[in-house]
Specification:
single chain, 410 residues, mainly alpha, 78% helix, 0% strand
Length: 410
Amino acid sequence: MNKLNHWKVFTAAPHRVMFFAGIAQFMLTLVWWSVELTARYTGVIAPLQTAIPSTFTHAWLMLFGVFPFLMFGFLMTTYPRWMNGPLVPEHSYVRAFLLMSAGVLLFYTGLFAGTAVVLAGIVVHAFGFALGIHGLYRVYRAVGPRRDRRYETQLNIALVLGVVSELAFAAWIAIASPLLLQTALRGALWLFLIPVLVLVGHRMIPFFSGSVIPNYTLVQPPWTFPVLWAAVVAHFVLETLGHNQWLFLADAPLLFVTLHHTLHWGFRRSLSVRLLGALHIAFAGLSFGLALYIIQSLTQLITGEFILGRAPLHAVAIGFVAAMVVAMITRVSRGHSGRPLTMDNLDWTAFVLMLTAVLLRIVGDVEFIAAASPVPPNLLAAAAWLAAVVPWGLRYLLIYLRPRLDGKPG
């Protein structure tokens, strides 16, 4: 196969280029963070000297450098199917992929070359992000209001809020405003990633479940949407302004929604099928994280103690966001490569190791438990992440470079 044919295979569908970049970046980010934690906890190697603090480097890489690629890989595949609309044009998703990838490379370069290059990388990435949204919007606009577009309308809003959050991060780099930094980080999680994944879960988990579980009743209540948006906006505002003790007011209604859905979507019955069970488990991770946020905020309100540290954040970010994305990518990648819709031992082991990383990361945030551990739990969590993502990621990177097994296009 010549170079032209390789490129044609690679760019044959949006999920190929976007998932490839997102998974490669996922692995690279975890390697970088593992090196940083090894230096921090063991002293075996010297800490990396970067243009912006390592914690915020890690935050940008995960929130913006990984997940937007993976979101686009999924949504550019599903928008045309959900709305029975035109496909996203190849030039549209390829340009977005190239610009976002260039932005990531500039960001990494800037970590050692200076903040001006970091800023340039973020701006280039955000421009590619915006082009990706435009590609989705073209499908949305072509379909018109004659079809039910309520999911896509809200997804469009969440994606735009993701770009706005990234631009707030760029503004923080430029003027060093703490409020802009908090706006960027909280906005990316609560106004972008969580709404996108709850909306996708609401749309797809009952559908997938109904195709596997016998005598299944489809439950997709419309009241999910207003409660979701009211809760995530309230959480974003309270946390950004530093009123963490009141977060339970926002998180309790959302916890009710997520628990209701987990119960009515057939969580227990889903576990007999790994690929379906992974989606249900990942969605339940949001309930677990919200419960930790509620415990934390009520404890802080009553005693003033911040007992769980960042454990609730990592429960949501890893246990829900990352786990949900991995489960979705696995399903899309297998189905769109002509492979059986199953989670084999490699995929399932990766998913279980990711859940193990969640628990270890939570333990690492509880001071009295972490202090008693002979090995820092955060370092163990990073090792579990690497053990989960690298073999799984390498498998799917190779799949995106090869034609479909069934000979179909895409």
